[in-house]
Amino acid sequence: MLEAIDINDIHPYQYVESMQSILEIIYKLEKDLCEVAGMDNFSLKQAAGAHGEFAGLLVIAKYFESIKQKKQK
Q: In this structure, are 28 and 53 located in the same domain?
């Protein structure tokens, strides 16, 4: 399926109807990454700078919350 799609030719304002193949690939990739990583959700958004650091801290905080480990100094 990827051979039929040149990701570099995708335009941000392209009609959604013409994007179903790439949207399906992105959806399946997110679900597969969740399964492999053992996470409930996965983001393919670029995370750089302060935004990326904050996103990483949120993931770490949720992990420690999930294993019920309290904050330590």
A: no
Specify whether the CB–CB gap between 21 and 3 falls below 8 A: no
Could you list the pLDDT tens digit for every one of the 73 residues in the chain? Answer: 445 556 667 777 888 777 888 888 889 999 999 999 888 888 877 677 888 888 888 888 888 888 888 777 6
Query: Which residue type occupies 31?
Result: K
Residues 27-62: b if buried by 16+ CB within 10 A, e if exposed? eeeeeeeeeeeeeeeeeeeeeeeeeeeeeeeeeeee
36 with 52, same domain: the answer is: no
- Taking each continuous run of H as one helix and of E as one strand, the counts in the chain are 2, 0
Number of separate domains in the chain: 2
